[in-house]
Amino acid sequence: MGSILVGTCSWTDPALVAGGWYPPDARDAEGRLRYYAGRFAVVEVDATYYGLPSTRNSELWAARTPPGFVFDVKAFSLLTGHSTRIGALPRQLRPAGSERAWVRPGALPPAAVEEVWQRFADALEPLRAAGRLGAVLMQFPPSLRPGPGAEEFVARCLERAGALGWRTAVEFRDPGWYGPERSARTVALAGRYRSALVAVDTARGLPASVPPVAVATVPELSVVRFHGRSPHWGTGGKEDAYRHRYAKEELMEWVPRIRALAERTEQVHVLFNNCCGDAAVGAAETMDRLLA
Question: Which InterPro entries does the entry mention (predicted)?
């Protein structure tokens, strides 16, 4: 039986910081991370999707957490084919004379995209060197629908990540990747590039709903991400789409699936992404007790 690490997607969410979960003496960034790491063994860093991380932050994260604590890190938006805020790019890589607020990877010169990959990798190196880098989450956009071109793009991304020495977890947002006629091919694609296929929990019965496919694709790692069951999944803004407080019965559905993954992999990361005050940490604490 592999180990099961439970945590949340972010320890710095403003609603969590303001919600009273942190004690009064955990008032700064260091205090909050140390407090969080005393209660959970894994966290997902989502801020790295919106902006390139820094080497200094990686050094501080490693220094402020105990041995065995790991950080899963979400890949910068440009690397997985999402539209990216031009202001999030290093100044020298921004398109000259562009008046657009957003840019897609295809609109940048290949050298600029390569530079972004390298900067992202350099920033994660202190975590990797310290043994604290869990998985790099390669989350692809809903617009990436299954097909030969999409598979080729995913393969290039995972090959590039593997060459950097990262363990990766791949998550698709278009439910077509997990459909009955497609699921086996998606599982094989993840396994071919030594990537964990993320199992997700979302609202059921909506056009954007992703089915709960929980399959171990590599022996080292499995990842499960709980996005909440909001009826606004796939249509609303972040606050509406992820706002959900899990009932114990909803979490119990996943206990046998998570244990089955742990029978096939060395480590399972179970991460809660349902933002609403302390909803994510509360669900993570409940799941920890259920699995124990």
Answer: DUF72, UPF0759_sf
Domain positions in the chain: 3-291
- The helix (H) or strand (E) run that includes residue 138 is strand 133-140
What is d(CA 90, CA 103) in angstroms, rounded to the nearest whole number? 13
Phi, psi of 18 (to 5 degrees): -85, -5
HSE-CB of 205 using CA atoms within 13 angstroms: 2
Structure tokens of 79? 């690397």
Q: Token digits for 282? A: 């509360």
Query: In this predicted model, what pLDDT tens digit does every residue of 67-121 receive, in sequence order?
Result: 999 999 999 999 999 999 999 999 999 887 666 789 987 889 999 999 999 999 9
The pairing of beta strand 133-140 with beta strand 199-201: unpaired
Beta partners for 137? 74, 169
The tens digit of pLDDT for each residue in 172-191 reads: 999 999 988 899 999 999 99
Kindly give the pairing relationship between strand 84-85 and strand 102-103.
antiparallel
